[in-house]
Amino acid sequence: MVMAPERDRVLQYVGGKWVGAADGSTYLVHNPSTGEPLAEVAAGDAADAAIAVGAARDAFDEGSWRNMSQEKRSLAMIAVAEHLAEVCDDWAFLESANGGATIRKTAVVDVPMAIEHFRSLAEQAMKISWYEPLPWVDIPAVSWNFVQREPIGICAGIIPWNYPLMMAVWKIAPAIAMGNSVVLKPSPFTPLTAARLVAAIDETGLIPKGVINLVTGPGPGLGEALVTDTRVDKVAFTGSTATGRKVLAGAAETIKKVTLELGGKSASIVCPDADLELAVDGVLFGTFFHQGQMCEAGTRVYVHAEIYEHFVEMLVAKARGLKVGNATDPESQLGPIINETQHRNIKEAVRRAVADGGRVLCGGGEPSDVPEGGHYLEPTVIANLPDDASAACDEIFGPVVSVFAWKELGDVISRANRSIYGLAGGVWSKDTRGAIEIARQLRTGTVWINDWHLINALAPFGGYRQSGLGRELGSYGLLEYTEVKHIHVDQNTGRQDRFAYDILLGS
Ligand code: NAD
User: What is the pLDDT of residues 410-440, one digit of tens each?
Assistant: First the structure.
């Protein structure tokens, strides 16, 4: 009998069974809108990671999933996606209650898109070629050569709190679509919808036990153990650049495959010919969606000097009108900040911005009329910051945007590119050709022209420079979950024609 996790008690899912932490301990997860406890969750640590990796390894070695034809595997996943769509009615509420993303967003974006991405990745996997013939060669030997793709093996997926369900799908779906086994570790703050997702997949009975595993726990030890376990073949990490560095260093010992989706400080360039109404709303969407807790948020906005005053006036007026409140209230346009530490860090970043000469045009404080116990911040617009101020360079990961004026295109492109990050960028202009020319010069993994945040399951997503390594989504993301093997087949060449052997042995 399948035992799904109850709403208020979340277990780990290991080798197809729901289990508590190896030492029986638990911890509490809270609702960031109210501070109330939401669930008691298994407090796994390194011992739990080891057990889950063992279960994943057994399933991989047993081979029924990895040796299944790609078509059968993808069709099983598409059937899983259909089931997810049938059982997800209360997931948006749970996602909002646990992660603080507004219900307006989770109902329309997080839940339906996560399921759509699961389905799409399964479909796209059917188009991946597992066999690639190489052209016939007679040097170094007359031989038939081809490249065979294979699953990597055991993949650890480590994810952040800002998109708990979507990130769980981005780690599970490509890994299993390409025949791997996976151990998913959600953020300590937001394990609830990942557990729901895994329970719903389990209900279908379509994915062999041990192919998907879920471990939960409050400390860094669980993630560290996955990164250093010699049986783990790949780590797919999404989180901050600071933790990404530790993951890369931890994985170095065993030379694991690593993909990293890290932080950002993305630049939005507003040209003088931009559709002003659209650009103002687009910049608000690009920065304050999900309280700015988005890796690709466009938090540096460069506005042409000719329209700067008018643009900023419109931006500030609209930012002031945004309603902040409980994430599960459909009226709330911004929800809470995930936790007290993050709330304090954002306020400190604003304080530093002011010390560096920045002028807070709106926000900067805590809104009134919000639920007790939550940590809320007003949408904040800062002007006059020097380009090298920390608030203009470092990821704040909150509802804070800095505006700058520009005059010369070459200059604004180099200012936009002057960042340790390179996740996303954007251009607002009616001149599509000109905007594409600017997009080509931005050193980022994604550029939106007259838009923001629209992530496409067919397109690669990831960062240049310290925003990451590798890509997710599309065929690019799927291929990150494969190894390539060259197979050389000799065409019955007799010993007398083996010139390479003669180098050592003589003829
Ligand atoms: P974080 O780096 O603090 O944590 C991410 C995950 O890593 C969590 O599951 C955490 O428990 C785990 N972890 C912590 N220490 C670890 C260690 N030493 N070894 C292994 N795992 C460890 O990030 P966060 O605060 O949860 O998320 C916010 C960050 O995520 C932001 O910087 C944001 O830009 C980034 N992010 C990036 C993307 C992207 O696609 N580029 C998407 C979403 C979020």
Answer: 999 999 999 999 999 999 999 999 999 999 9
Q: What is the mean pLDDT of the chain?
A: 96
Q: Read out DSSP for 85-144?
A: HHH-TTHHHHHHHHH---HHHIIIIIHHHHHHHHHHHHHHHTTS-SEEEPPPB-SS-SEE
Kindly state if the Cβ of 158 falls inside 6 Å of ligand 1: yes
Which uninterrupted H or E stretch holds 176? helix 164-177
| CA pair distance 316, 339, nearest whole angstrom | 26
pTM above 0.85, yes or no: yes
* Shortest-distance Cα residue to atom 31 of ligand 1: 240
Under the banding of pLDDT at 50, 70 and 90, the label for residue 7 is low
State which ligand 1 atom lies nearest to the alpha carbon of 188: 11
294 lines ligand 1 (CB under 6 A): no
Ligand 1 contact via 397 beta carbon (within 6 Å): yes
DSSP E strands in 353-465: the ranges are 359-362, 380-383, 400-406, 424-428, 446-449
Q: Sign of the C-alpha dihedral, residues 52, 54, 58, 60?
A: positive
Asked if the model's pLDDT at residue 131 lies above 60, the reply is yes
